[in-house]
Design brief:
The protein is an alpha+beta fold. Helices cover 22% and strands 19% of the residues.
Length: 173
């Protein structure tokens, strides 16, 4: 049974623009990385549409998570990182938050608004749940993994013509 998409947070136009700019730089900027981040298959090269889609949807999800949980008094969460790094460097944890005086490493996974599944690839984790593809080759133990459903990121992608539409009318949430 499919769970209906009901947004529990909204993003400001400024938030959406920051996410879009980040994704655009990751896709077309001088530091963009066509290789799948953290992929065990270094030969898999993502096309620009995939890079933009993944970066934009992921950053929208992180920003929505931050907007939702940073307002809680018992949560101390830093804002999302919008740094654009050179090829071969990536963040392995989306947030390091303090909740009720305890530190947590949080990973945000995203899917489209109609998505129902969280896919965690077995070969990317060891038997104890450590993420094997952390930065600098280190294992990472995420304390919490959140799945965020994002509506509207695809409004910017013209799959048929393989390009990214930039219009002020489209507003992802």
């Amino acid at each position: 049974m499919q769970k209906k998409f009901i947004p529990n947070t909204a993003l400001s136009l400024e938030d959406k623009e920051k996410c879009f700019d980040f994704a655009y730089k990751m896709t077309f900027g001088e530091n963009h990385n066509p290789y799948s981040f953290g992929s065990k298959n270094p030969k898999h090269i993502r096309n620009q549409i995939e890079i933009f889609r993944d970066a934009f949807q992921g950053k929208l999800a992180e920003t929505g998570f931050y907007n939702l949980y940073s307002k809680r008094k018992d949560y101390n969460i830093p804002p999302p990182d919008f740094s654009v790094w050179k090829r071969g460097k990536w963040e392995d944890t989306d947030f390091e938050a303090i909740v009720n005086n305890k530190k947590y490493k949080i990973s945000i996974k995203s899917t489209k608004d109609f998505g129902q599944l969280l896919l965690l690839e077995k070969n990317r984790y060891d038997k104890n749940g450590y993420y094997l593809e952390g930065s600098n080759g280190k294992k990472v133990k995420h304390d919490l993994i959140f799945l965020a459903r994002v509506k509207g990121a695809d409004n910017f992608i013209d799959y048929k013509n393989k390009n990214i539409k930039i219009t002020s009318k489209e507003k992802p949430v």
